[in-house]
Amino acid sequence: MNGADGNRGIDILIYSHKPFLFPKGLDWLRPMISLECPPLPGLLRNDSGQNIAALGNFYNELTGLYWLWKNQASARIAGLFHYRRYLNFLENTPGASVRPFEVTAPASLETLRFLTAPFQRERLEQLLDVYDAIVPQAVIEPCSIEQQYLWNHAKEPWERFWEIVFGLYPHYAKYRSFLTLSNKFHFNNIVVCKKPWLDAYAAQLFPALEALTKELGFPESQPGKRFQDRRYPAYLAERFLMFYLHVNGVRAYDAQLVTLA
Hints:
9 helices; two-stranded antiparallel sheet
């Protein structure tokens, strides 16, 4: 299934590396499976159209973002979820007096009906009449973006990535201290946005990652390690999104993250 019809109003991909409970029959929210996933008839694959599916073990969900950038030229709105992580676009969670930034919900048909209901799509379109992008509600950590990364990941990719970014886009260099000052995090490379915004973002992110990975390559997988060093492109992209939102003055709306369990 190619799926790159080039004529979609809204195209939000649900990226997955394995079979899971997916919504069916929606024209605006659809699963995309990776090369790691056993074949599932009728589902969009990340090796269709122009793609970087071969880098899936390193880029992970970014292969879906790349696919949207390259294949959905006329979409008005585009976005990326994970098989277990969705955004709730409503102001409140049913049954809760205060909306927590993240909730865990059962992986059930009832949960999917709520997350994919027509009122979610209506609210999404209303938000993007006012905002440029929708991201997971910010998590505030007791450390900076840079410190948090270095606590969990290797130092060399971090340092070289930003050297490359500031070399490619010199006007960003004056904002370098944002990485050592900000403690506001939007994790998971989840974003829904106007398609021209996604195009502009991807056109800066992927050349920087390509230059970095050509230089550093990819280390071997380490069984049992939570943060795989070989997946550094996806981890760096999370931080680049935070940086990009700030330095470009993006009008971003923070939506509740729903994790299916």
